[in-house]
Amino acid sequence: MQSTFSFSILSKYRTQLMGIAALGILLCHASGNGVQLPSVLNYIFGLGNFGVDLFLLLSGFSMYHSLRYFPKSESIVCWYNKRFFRLLVPYLILSVPYWAYICILENASITDFLYYVSTAVYWIEHRGAWFIALIIPLYLLSPIFMRICTSQRGVYYVLALIAIICVPELFMTDQSCHTLHNILFVLKRVPFFLLGFIAGRFEEEKIEIKSSWVLLLCVGFAVCYKMLQFFGITIYLLLPILVLGVLLMCIPLISNISLFNRLFVFMGGISLESYLTNIYLGDIFRRGEFDSKLLCYLFVVALGILLSVVTNKLSTRIIKSKYN
Which of 32, 130, 175, 261 is deepest in the core (most CB within 10 A)? Predict the structure, then answer.
């Protein structure tokens, strides 16, 4: 382990980290697909849920650099076009046939189909790809986050914004309103997107932190999480920071293992597609009756990876044809 932690690690190992996040999501979705696991494995696989937070951290980090080095001669509308085109092409390739299939099963209308594909269905019914439903407004707000973060006291302003975002989680415990519950479900993940902007600024300014301080900070977050939990208070932000902090410290060592590095790079290249195929295929196959949930989910993962590779190649070709 290196004596100092540099935020450039997010650039150097971005693809590997995306791959780890994608694999984590595949693992944590196992229990949701009916796979019965020993309690220890179930807990370990459950940590894969933090893969979404890692996605958001890396997305915020990427948005910082994308906006920082975007040509000033081009308008912000052009920036939006590029970002959303890269996001929505693979999303639509996978989502249109999936929701069309669901509409046929449910005898739904064209209006329902548009409602599903637009991601509005998440905010009302908690269905579909909630990560996409969240990332769209975050992309829209990114230029504002960028302006805040790059101001003189920008880091403090972003940290204050994160603190404000955490407040509703403490007081809004009534789950009777489904829409409010769905908003709070994604709101508690937004701080990781904002932390990505801070990490982007720290990398630009070449700020480094002693590894011992990073580990001490992770331990501090763990202690705070447990202490607050003892008093019946849960702040979601604290536990993922502990896990992700340790992961970022260890990623150079893990990536030195050739087999792991190749796996992470491969999954990092299809991270968005594998997330979508896992959700959609998982939902389709959960509707059937299978003797072995484990074999069924392994098939979902294998088929999902295959479809992800095909979708990635197709969407890459479409994107390159537009911007190259």
Answer: 130
Nearest Cα to 60, choosing from 124, 145, 167, 151?
A: 145
Q: β-pairing, 208-210 with 4-6?
A: antiparallel
CA atoms within 13 A on the CB side of 187: 19
The single-letter code of the amino acid at 148 is I
Query: Which amino acid, residue 147?
Result: R
Residue 210 phi/psi, 5° resolution? Answer: -60, 135
| Exposure string for 137-162, b = 16+ CB within 10 A, e = fewer | ebbeebeebbebbbeeebbeebeebb
pLDDT-derived band at 175, boundaries 50, 70, 90: low
Spatial distance between the Cα atoms of 152 and 259, rounded to a whole number of angstroms? 44
pLDDT reading at 66 higher than 80: yes
Which residues make Cβ contacts (< 8 Å) with residue 293, sequence separation at least 6?
33, 34, 35, 36
List, in sequence order, every residue forming a beta bridge with 209; answer none if it has no partner.
5
For residue 84, the model assigns a pLDDT of 94
Closest CA to 97 of 314, 320, 317, 321: 314
Where do runs of H (alpha helix) occur along 206-255? 211-230, 238-255
Dist CA 234 CA 291 (whole Å): 38
Q: Taking Cα atoms as reference points, which of 22, 300, 279, 271 lies closest to residue 128?
A: 279
Q: Is this prediction's pTM over 0.90?
A: yes
